[in-house]
């Protein structure tokens, strides 16, 4: 079975899961509204509203947790039977794990792009005006990284439950260090330095620089790091994915 056909099947399976669809559509809008309302009035400097801040950070948060969607696509019980049939068919193991990565990537990229369009044109959130396309490009590259990361962890841990138990606290730590819920730079030099461990920090800082300073100095390096890291995780999948252990 060729890669495109398997990707199509996997996308259909994702769309059949209402929890995944709701999480990647309604949930981020609820988070933006909730955090924007709670912090309303606290982000008055330089024309930045709380909705502008959380309109960006909550989308990054959603993309960060795409790693768990990739885990679900790979190991969720409802799709495992179909995946086992693939293993027994004349389909290479590379096609099997790549289909999980790319189906999740396509699914998430389409949905968060729609949400960003809603933010920009309906909710009036500042997404950089004519530089909007650069914001989308950054999030798409980060999305590829998280899809690859989630799939590689599945190949290592061999089960959805173990993968999710590992990814959930790791992702929350990355979100906190990246300042998705509140800016961490005001917490001191040590915390500020630690925050750069998180790729979330690079993405959010790059996006805010583009929107408010029209500064593109981080754009190419950030995308290059995301794509390079994605390739490393894909190679890790190739090394660690053993179809016979999946059965």
Task: Give structural notes.
The structure is a single chain. The protein is mainly alpha-helical and 247 residues long. The protein has one domain (3-246). The chain is built from 13 helices and no strands. Helix 1 (3-15) packs across helix 7 (93-121), helix 7 runs antiparallel to helix 8 (132-157) and helix 8 (132-157) packs antiparallel against helix 9. It is globular and about 60 Å long. InterPro entries: ABC2_TM, ABC2_TM_bact-type, ABC_2_transport, Nod_factor_ABC_transporter. The chain crosses the membrane at residues 21-41, 53-74, 95-118, 133-157, 166-184, 218-241. This is Transport permease protein.
Describe this structure in a few short sentences.
The chain has 247 residues and is an all-alpha fold. Helix content is 77%, strand content 0%.
Which descriptors apply to this entry?
single chain; 247 residues; mainly alpha; 13 helices; 0% strand; cell membrane; transmembrane helix; transmembrane; ABC_2_transport; Transport permease protein
What is the terminal-to-terminal distance?
A: 19 Å
SS strand fraction: under 5%
Major sheet description: none
Q: Mean pLDDT, nearest integer?
A: 87
**Uncertain ranges:** none
Written as H for each helix and E for each strand, in order along the chain, the element string is HHHHHHHHHHHHH
Task: Please identify the structural class as seen in this structure.
Answer: mainly alpha
Q: State Rg.
A: 18 Å
Number of strands: 0
The number of helical elements comes to: 13
What is the helix fraction of residues, given as a range?
Answer: over 70%
- Overall morphology: globular
Oligomer status:
single chain
User: How many distinct folded domains?
Assistant: 1
Family: Belongs to the ABC-2 integral membrane protein family.
GO molecular function: ABC-type transporter activity
Subcellular location: Cell membrane; Membrane
Protein name: Transport permease protein
């Amino acid at each position: 079975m060729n890669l495109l056909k398997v990707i199509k099947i996997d996308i259909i399976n994702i769309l059949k899961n209402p929890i995944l669809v709701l999480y990647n559509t309604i949930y981020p809008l609820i988070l933006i509204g909730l955090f924007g309302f709670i912090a309303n009035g606290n982000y008055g400097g330089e024309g930045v509203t709380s909705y502008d801040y959380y309109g960006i950070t909550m989308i990054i948060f959603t993309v960060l947790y795409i790693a768990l969607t990739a885990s679900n696509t790979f190991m969720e019980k409802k799709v495992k039977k179909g995946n086992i049939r693939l293993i027994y068919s004349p389909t290479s193991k590379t096609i099997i794990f790549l289909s999980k990565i790319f189906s999740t990537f396509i699914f998430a990229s389409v949905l968060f792009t729609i949400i960003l369009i809603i933010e920009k044109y309906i909710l009036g959130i500042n997404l950089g005006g004519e530089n909007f396309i650069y914001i989308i490009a950054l999030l798409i590259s980060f999305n590829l990284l998280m899809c690859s990361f989630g799939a590689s962890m599945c190949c290592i841990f061999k089960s959805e439950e173990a993968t999710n138990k590992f990814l959930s606290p790791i992702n929350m730590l990355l979100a906190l260090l990246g300042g998705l819920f509140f800016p961490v730079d005001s917490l001191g030099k040590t915390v500020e330095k630690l925050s750069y461990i998180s790729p979330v920090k690079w993405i959010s800082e790059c996006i805010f620089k583009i929107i408010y300073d029209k500064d593109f100095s981080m754009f190419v390096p950030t995308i290059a790091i995301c794509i390079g890291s994605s390739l490393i995780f894909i190679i890790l999948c190739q090394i660690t994915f053993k179809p016979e252990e999946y059965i």
